[in-house]
Write a structure and sequence with these properties.
With 255 residues, this protein is of the alpha/beta class. An 8-stranded parallel β-barrel has the order 1-2-3-4-5-6-7-8, surrounded by 5 helices. The protein starts with a strand and ends with a helix. The chain has a single domain, classed as TIM Barrel (Alpha-Beta Barrel). The longest helix has 19 residues. Bound molecules: 2-phosphoglycolic acid. 2-phosphoglycolic acid binds next to strand 8.
Amino acid sequence: MRKILLAGNWKMNKGIKETEKFLKELKNEIEEEIFEKIDVAVFPPFTSLYIASILLKNTKIYLGAQNVFYEKEGAYTGEISPTMLKEIGVKYVIVGHSERRIITRENDEMIAKKLKAAIEEKIVPILCVGETIEERERNIHKEVVERQVQEGLKFLKEDDEFIIAYEPVWAIGTGKTATPEIAGEMQGFIRGKIKEIFGKEKGEKVRILYGGSINSKNIEELISHPEIDGGLIGGASLKKEEFLSIIKNSIRSLK
Ligand code: PGA
């Protein structure tokens, strides 16, 4: 059984003060029992990671980062290395989010190197893949996602731990959530590719999350789909009440 992961991607939101308030409240209000059934992680921006790591010490809420560079140190102005993230206590890192692929022009080669570099520091990368609306309309969405998966994973070995997040670009921040059928179909396709690359056993083990306009109302039916092992949640993870409702409602689908 793959354990559900709910990952709150804060994007460029919440500085130190807001992070402090949010996490103090979250850790007080979250119910301990949920951690037996699901993993919960938050992904603050870089400047809030340190305070978040202090606040999350001795809790079961995991810490994640939204990006990483592929070198350990050196003349790379503006970048943050996996070693630095490890020192802060980061467990997961998002790699290849569509906002980075599109706005900051990250390509598959960079993304592949980032995954490898994260794994070398024992940080679990979450590789984001997903097609644009034009690609879906042209019926090349599977081809696009297949390339992103194959290229992104090309430096990894079977026993490296990684997670995939299927995030159709047309569903991110638009309120147009993919139906469980659409997401499930693509995620089954992605799992098939992972089996082709690393073998059946690994393919069965890898967690594949869905991301794109998840909220407390649609989480239950999404998670109920056998191919959806959790969610990468943007906007709805910023409000504590909504994030707590998402957690609660996803537990319902496991019963
Ligand atoms: P959203 O973002 O939930 O606001 O659509 C998801 C993501 O980009 O990870």
